[in-house]
Write a structure and sequence with these properties.
4-stranded antiparallel β-sheet, mainly beta, 0% helix, 7-stranded mixed β-sheet
């Protein structure tokens, strides 16, 4: 019943910025932790950033700390990922996801803990 749609990806030079957005429809995911994941060709899908049910607790992969900022607006059923100081290593398809369980203090980092996924948006960072 929940549909997630990502947008905001594109091509950017190293050091540039992009802002990804995720819009949820159907059953509101406001009571669930949510996260952003990414997957590069030939690589495993990895956790990027997560945000708690109320949006008061965030966590990040070490590789993006200090550069990315996750946020959510439960009233609008949206979640954003502000990405600054982008590097070629950030090139991947980025996915929005909703956790399958409630009660997490912070968003889980394991992709298996998420049940609803968007189709992804491509982010390409040139050298």
């Amino acid at each position: 019943q929940v549909q997630l749609v990502e947008s905001g990806g594109g091509l950017v030079q190293g050091g540039g910025s992009l802002r990804l957005s995720c819009v949820a429809s159907g059953l509101p995911p406001s009571t669930y932790a949510m996260g952003w994941f990414r997957q590069a060709p030939g690589e495993e899908r990895e956790f990027v950033a997560g945000i708690s049910e109320r949006g008061d607790v965030t966590n990040y992969a070490d590789s993006v700390k200090g550069r990315f900022t996750i946020s959510r607006d439960n009233a609008k059923n949206t979640m954003d990922l502000q990405m600054n100081s982008l590097k070629p290593m950030d090139t991947a398809v980025y996915y929005c996801a909703r956790s399958r369980s409630r009660g997490w203090f912070s968003a889980p980092k394991n992709s298996n803990e998420y049940d609803y996924w968007g189709q992804g948006t491509q982010v390409t960072v040139s050298s």
